[in-house]
Write a structure and sequence with these properties.
Strand content: 15-25%
CATH topology of the largest domain: 2-enoyl-CoA Hydratase, Chain A, domain 1
CATH architecture of the largest domain: Alpha-Beta Complex
Helix content: 40-55%
Shape: globular
Structural class: alpha/beta
Number of strands: 17
Number of domains: 3
């Protein structure tokens, strides 16, 4: 075995400072996650409970197998916007009757579970994950439909929700809708387009138009139950496949539906995996508070892979990028991890070769980000950094094995692309609270704008206002800094969640297990033209 040797000293002042800085960030993260859990707040939670109803996360808990984990996705959606953190929707991956499923649950304590623009993006991301990984999709429905004041941002793209349900079904991925309350207007198509539908007695209301709309459109007098009640749909329309007497019964029936799906993983589960040799608690002190300071990614790898066993590839070449083979919860992975931030030509070529090897062997890839981007300067431009960086991005773009990405520190510029950022469709992408991502660092971006403005003034023969320049730089730095922080990016669904570093191995293990539900095969060619 090639067990990594750790040089980390938990008593070192620098380590302790890094750890304290991370704990502060985690406390801030916990406070934001608590906002998502609170939903609409105490008043609306009490009203919901007063009606004898379970909360969204309580429904999920009863649906899942006892003592199994739930990997919540995009919990900070809508952070920093006018909408409630979490976007009135809970999504994630959990095990139901031994089957890994993608679960979505409307939060009716937030504006009746109405969908806003961020709810839509979150739901569409969940559908992408279900389709890519062949995960049965269970929708726990209680929503008044679209948040009407924001309809201009929802109506047109919102049709993709229904498109996705039909595509999942066509691909043989089961879809189950459990209706606990309102599922009206466009929302009626969620049970209408699901393979299996369960409705709760005297609670579920599924209709295209409620009594007021029917009265306005046709003059017909009607009531909720005859128009779209659970019993009507179970006895008359046939929309309900199963009729539940209460919420607990509905969730029991949903579990039985999943038990009868005969849905099998495409790959056999791996055997038992030996935990890392080093304490995962130590992950808190590895990344410096100042991302300009380098850190050794092997210290992270040693604390997340099985037995801390890592076979490094080309260790003496392109040393700013660490590459190698390991196992994580028994699943083989190829790892690319930035060591000193900057990517040079050697690192780019090394990465391209490594990605090709992973595709030859059908091994998923894990990207651990801490990069300021590709190296600039006359020497490096003449040395071919553009074509070599393009080679790495080409390899990432056309790789067919599943990709996982975790932003540990910096993830700037085209380096974010080369390390499989969001635009390159990683199956899952997470960030640590220490991560930052933008076109470049705040100081560099502000400095570039300052240089351009200074050159423009000189070209026009005008004096340059140094005081205004300092104010502009400070403003730009502050803006870019705030827009590069993980909660800001997670709020826009540029990742699948900001995670506690200590949970990295668990989160990645759950993702790898989900990935192996679907068949995959690496690219045996088809990488396009590599400029040599």
């Amino acid at each position: 075995m090639t067990v990594l040797t750790s040089a980390l000293d938990p008593n070192d002042p620098e380590y302790r400072a890094n750890r304290e800085a991370m704990l502060v960030k985690l406390a801030e993260l916990d406070a934001e996650h608590a906002k998502a859990v609170e939903g609409g707040g105490e008043k609306y939670v009490a009203r919901h409970r007063g009606r004898g109803k379970l909360l969204a996360r309580e429904r999920i808990e009863l649906l899942l197998d006892p003592d199994t984990p739930f990997l919540e996705l995009s919990p900070l959606a809508a952070w920093g916007s006018e909408y409630t953190v979490g976007a009135s929707l809970v999504t994630g991956i959990g095990v139901v009757e031994g089957v890994e499923c993608l679960i979505t649950a409307n939060d009716p304590t937030v504006r009746g579970g109405a969908s806003n623009p961020w709810s839509l993006r979150k739901a569409l991301r969940a559908n992408d994950i279900a389709l890519a990984n062949r995960l049965p999709c269970i929708s726990l429905v209680e929503s008044g439909g679209a948040d009407l004041p924001s309809q201009k941002e929802i109506f047109i793209p919102g049709g993709a929700i229904f498109r996705d349900l039909t595509r999942l079904s066509a691909a043989g991925v089961p879809t189950v809708a459990v209706v606990f309350g309102n599922s009206t207007a466009g929302g009626a198509y969620i049970p209408g387009m699901s393979d299996h539908v369960i409705m709760v007695k005297e609670r579920a209301k599924v209709f295209l138009g409620g009594p007021p709309l029917v009265k306005m459109a046709t003059g017909e007098e009607s009531d909720d139950d005859s128009l779209g009640g659970a019993e009507m749909h179970a006895r008359v329309s046939g929309l309900a496949d199963h009729f539940a007497v209460d919420e607990q019964d509905a969730l029991r029936q949903a579990r039985r539906v999943v038990a009868r799906l005969n849905h099998r993983k495409a790959h056999t589960d791996p055997g038992p995996a030996e935990p890392p040799k080093y304490d995962t608690e130590e992950l808190l002190g590895i990344v410096p508070g100042d991302l300009k300071s380098p850190f050794d990614p092997r210290e992270v790898i040693a604390r997340i892979v099985d037995a801390s066993d890592f076979d490094e590839f080309k260790p003496l070449y392109g040393t700013s990028l660490t590459t190698g083979w390991a196992a994580l919860h028994g699943y083989p992975v190829g790892i690319l991890a930035n060591a000193r931030g900057v990517l040079f030509s050697e690192e780019s070529q090394k990465a391209a070769q490594f990605i090709q090897l992973a595709n030859q062997r059908d091994i998923p890839l894990l990207f651990l980000h801490n990069t300021t981007g590709y190296m600039v300067g006359r020497e490096y431009e003449q040395g071919g950094i553009i074509k070599h960086g393009a080679m790495m991005i080409n390899a990432v773009s056309n790789s067919k094995v599943p990709h996982l990405s975790v932003l540990l520190g910096a993830s700037y510029g085209a380096g974010h692309y080369g390390m499989c950022g969001r635009a390159y469709d990683p199956r899952f992408l997470f960030a640590w609270p220490s991560a930052k991502s933008a076109v470049m660092g705040p100081q560099q971006l502000a400095g570039v704008l300052s240089i351009v403005a200074r050159q423009s003034a000189a070209a026009k023969g005008q004096p340059y206002d140094e005081e205004a320049d300092a104010a502009l730089r400070a403003m730009v730095e502050q803006q870019i800094e705030s827009e590069s922080l993980p909660m800001f990016l997670s709020g826009r669904l540029y990742d699948d969640g900001v995670i506690d570093p200590r949970d990295t191995r668990t989160a990645l293990g759950l993702c790898l297990s989900a990935i192996h539900t679907a068949r995959y095969e690496g690219a045996r060619g088809g990488f396009g033209v590599f400029r040599m």
